[in-house]
Fold each of these.
Amino acid sequence: MLVDDFLGIYLRDQLAMGVLWRELARRAQRNNRGTELGAAVGGVATAIAEDVETFRTIMRRLGVRTDPVKTGLAFGAERLGRLKRNGRLTSYSPLSRFEELEFLAMGIDGKKQLWTTLRDLAGLRERLPDIDFDHLIGRAARQRADLEPFRARAGTDAFATHGPQ
């Protein structure tokens, strides 16, 4: 296998993860519509969607085909994730909110690492000099910082004890 074959596999896997995070961000935005959190997650959801398109552009420029099966499975995995128990039978719970934000934070941290990997380890800074990887890394850091206060608050709300058990 050529190194570019490994890069192609990596890019297809990362695209699938990007689709999963994009869908999760959209769900979190819908679940918190009309709130300050909903507005913050909406901004992050838009940025993640833009990052997915940037990523698709990088793949096209490198001649790497997408894998519809992988992206379809990621899309389906996000949908299946909605079926998990959340401590409430029919409604959105504080645990649901926290888990959405926690998983989004993990995804954004992973995206920051992805851009760094492509820039530094895969040598794409030289192969695609017009792609501003530093900007993409900084944008991921800002997204993470924007969500952090909401993630911390949601965790406190989900796990707060209300006296001795």
Amino acid sequence: MNPTTPIHRAPDSPAARQALALAGVFQAASLVDELARTGQVDPRAWETLIEATVDTNPASFEAIYGGHPNNLRRGLDTLEALVGRKQANPVVLRYGFSLLMLMNKLRTDNDMMDTLGQKLTRIQGQAEHFGTTHENVVASLGEAYQETISTFKTRIVVQGDPSLLQSRMMPERVRACLMAGIRFGLLWHQQGGRRWKLVFQRKALRRALDSLS
């Protein structure tokens, strides 16, 4: 991420902050789908997710996603589909809602939260040495996901090109994306986001998306 990117102050509205956090979840879901099908990802969207996951103590809400809502544009576009304004990709939506379900399981498992926190602290040290998106860091994020979230009975089955999914660093990149989705899911919950609101408060989500466009 470009360190000179100006900080675009996040809205004070709880709904808008929830929308930004939720966009992170669905951006992760979108990139998992893209990786599994093509082996490629949008660099800006990818860096935003990985940096948000590695930075366990951001200076501000805005700093989590690199200071500008456009860093979450992929996720915001997916939310537009969720509220019915654009064509939805059912696979991406399934990944996104599965991430929210896993986040809820993690949130109530204090031991796993502690373990994950310790792992992310170590990974942050790695990132300071190698750089945030270095493959060693990505591999460690993937390993952290595999040793924690992947142990739940509920798991995300990724669909895609089998040869791509088995290629070098691809499992680690996919798991790192999923870890980022969990990170933004926790942020969404911290900001007051709840599954029922996605059903009963769609107008509020639409207004929040309008304020971020």
Amino acid sequence: MKPAKTRKSLAVPLSWRDMPWGESFRDALSHHLQPCLGKLYGFHLLKIGNLSAEIDTQNCAISHQVSVGETGQEVQVIADPLHLPFEAKSVDACLLAHTLSWSHDPHRILREVDRVLIDDGWMILTGFNPLSLLGMGKLIPGLHRRAPWNGRMFSQMRLLDWLSLLNYEVVYRSRFQVVPWNRQGGKVISTHVPALGCINIMVARKRTLPLTMTPAKKRAGQVKLRATVNATRQLRKLEDQDSG
């Protein structure tokens, strides 16, 4: 398995239009994301990356939506996704539509998103499936230099592993196929062989558990422990007297 961090130069597409059938991918992804976006609530939604900025999120209940990227007409805040200019635990949801696919350090992006997300906040990840017919195109000489094949494709199992390390619970995941010249063909594969779908969708929720014991519980535990120790000492004295 190749390491997540890479030093290779990645030609990042500034728009879905910069790749073959990109607008079809964008429209299909926006359509499949609507049920997920409809269940989000809160105050702030971040759309990280140029491709995320073009995803239709009008039906999302979160009214304040901000697009973040290094450049682009759809971007509202110019910033590096590796260094988001937001306070810790200040954002309710983050959309990363194929953001990890053209990142040199996807782990760092996930940690930065984790930093700005509130407890129980949502992270939506999308990307191309390496096990799909589209993913197999990376094996064709010359084709791997063009988008979307020049991007990185991570399997759902690998993403699940990364999210579990950050203590995220994956509440929804799916794959679907896009066939720009035959929509019915995409539906057939998505319905009957979803594992071969070219696009992954994962929705994860940030879970936090209280690891520090409150002072009241700590004192209560210490009192019970002392009482048990004293009882043991008294029992030993009685045993010594009987034996004597």
Amino acid sequence: MSAMNEKKVIAVIVEGPSDEAALGSILKEYFSSEEIQFVVVHGDITTKDYTSTDNILSKINNLIESVKQKYGYKIEDFLKIIHIVDMDGAFCNDAIVEKDVEGVHYYLDRIETKYPDYLIRKHTQKAEILSKLYSSGKINGVSYRIYFNSCNLEHVLFNELKDFTDDEKADMADDFAEKFEGKVEDFIAFISQEDLIAPGTFKQTWRFIEKEKHSLERFTNMHLIFK
């Protein structure tokens, strides 16, 4: 390891820039003795057309490779990979309702879309891939854990279940980061609220979110990042 890289690296994979904006300073403060590198996917890697259960581990590994090349890391420089995803009602195919609406509308008890068959296909793909990811434990020998926000990050952080624009998400994320700047303990307390956390061990939180309408409701297991 070069002198520059004496810190171990934690790669944090997120869906969009607002996820990094909201959580970046909190994670950097909490893991201050490590080097945090964010990998922004710009979308949901689990539902992309080129992703399947057969290739998802190599797709994640490619993201880590890009970080390695960009900063000149070796694989042994990595301490762990933290992957944060939105659930988007992935396990709620039976709650999908055909409606003449633009895009996809999420509610606590249903999902409205003009193209239910397409959404069911995407959800099925996402559910299978998530099951593979939370069971994997390691990617290329590096400890790997995937954490969820349900229905999405904004729902968990702001208790708002609506379709925000990217600009709105960015503003909300900045406000959130400011609110918890230098207050990691406060954030951990917030994210560990009894009515917010999926119960149990890491595996149990995933089994919980797979059931009933939990992947539409407001739950997270991000508190386990800080355990």
